[in-house]
Amino acid sequence: xxxxxxLTPGITSGRLSAETLSQNFDDLHPAYAPHEAAVAADRCYxxxxxxxxxxxxxxxxxxxxxxxxxxxxxxxxxxxxxxQNILGGxxxxxxxxxxxxxxxCVREAAEGKPVEIGRLQRFATxxxxxxxxxPFTRAASxxxxxxxVGAGPSGLSCAHRLAxxxxxxxxxxxxxxxxxxxxxxxxxxKSTDDFAAHEVDWLLxxxxxxxxxxxxxGDELSLDELQNEYxxxxxxxxxxxxxxxxxxxxEREGVSDAVSFIADLRxxxxxxxLPVGRDVVVIGGGMTAVDAAVQSKLLGAQxxxxxxxxxxxxxxxxxxxxxxxxxxxVRIIANAQPVAVHGNGAVAExxxxxxxxxxxxxxxxxxxxxxxxxxLFKAIGQTLEAAPEALKLDGRKIAVTGAxxxxxxxxWAGGDCASGGDDLTVTAVAEGRDAAEDIHASxxxxxx
Length: 448
Ligand SMILES: Cc1cc2nc3c(=O)[nH]c(=O)nc-3n(C[C@H](O)[C@H](O)[C@H](O)COP(=O)(O)OP(=O)(O)OC[C@H]3O[C@@H](n4cnc5c(N)ncnc54)[C@H](O)[C@@H]3O)c2cc1C
Ligand code: SF4
Hints:
Helix 4 (62-70) packs across helix 9 (117-130), helix 6 packs antiparallel against helix 9 and helix 14 crosses helix 15. Helices cover 35% and strands 18% of the residues. It folds into 3 domains: 34-130, Orthogonal Bundle (Fumarate Reductase Iron-sulfur Protein, Chain B, domain 2), CATH 1.10.1060.10; 145-240 and 384-446, 3-Layer(bba) Sandwich (FAD/NAD(P)-binding domain); 243-378, FAD/NAD(P)-binding domain (3-Layer(bba) Sandwich). It is globular, with a radius of gyration of 23 Å. By secondary structure, it is of the alpha/beta class.
């Protein structure tokens, strides 16, 4: 029996039994059985100029892979997917398909029920990966070497494409494990059974990629040294800093950033040992806010509230994600901004002010309210840290043009740390892949 219950005050572990926790954190979208997949794929009209392809940042030939599933060749379907998106397995689990391919699907417009592209992509990629196959072979060695810094989706995708072309890649990461936010950020119920780590192992089967963990750009690594040692450098370090609330009392015990809480949760071997508050407040409106809130609830928090400063329709989290949160019992309060965190040492209440938008500017109305809180998560966006000084910035990101070219010749960047594109796994994969192709083309251009 658990030691605590959802009603136990304060931040404590063991609010729910191991059995309940395992049910709560089960796969969000269970895998299709083969006959279900064939029936679901059969709903596709195999459109000419298919809008779903254009809506996919990696431009997977969706009607082709659906046809391959329908005709009973899921491994061929997987190859179609993976040739455009080597992390097609993870993207099938985490992509907000409701705002990408499935939103664009003509069956969504006609019937409000799109072809379930994400789940079908998962069926195909899982089939191939369970068979232990890697569908690509590495070209003969070119003798060129590339340093890829950051082993998240952008770095992994870049490294794989470079290795396929026969270049030698060293993939550096500051953390002890590769995978980036696939390993440390994505909600646990989207990536079950250690899928992120399995996918990295599977991807590395291409050969030609050496992974070096515990190597941080700015500490163990310098851009100058990498430029001297390698023929090209790709920077895919994501956004590892967190924004502050700028509300009085934010240093109180019980206030922390949502990304760290999620990383701890993803790495926990026993969820019943992970402490969570009884009254949890999450500040923010993106996927991170929703993931922190939903997972707090699933761990056994009694009351979980998301507070977002603008209107609910402006939240970064999609409507599907918002509905997921409310279906789990999370309350969403829109149009309110944090003013202060109150308590005697530890947080006891969070104070907010209602907001309104006038002439495009967000303003407080002066009317405030308080919410009881023993744990408060900040989920108000991540920031770029340790960006090499030599690289020009565009706003708060590394400035890139074309396929990830930075302001310094021979250095490319992509994923969340680079300008342009949405901060999504699939976008990071596309940018890493495209930078790799551009690096490869630059090598060919130099070959006499
Ligand atoms: C909580 C959370 C949930 C999310 N959920 C989703 C989702 O459901 N669907 C979706 O599409 N997107 C989601 N995202 C966004 C998605 O995870 C990112 O867009 C994606 O991971 C970006 O990939 P990346 O390779 O650019 O960076 P990251 O995944 O952040 O990887 C960067 C890597 O670089 C390493 N690194 C950082 N600094 C250094 C340094 N100085 N030197 C060396 N290595 C360094 C890091 O350790 C990390 O491994 C989520 C993000 C968060 C924070
Ligand atoms: S838009 Fe929908 S129906 Fe048309 S090809 Fe894409 S998945 Fe099939």
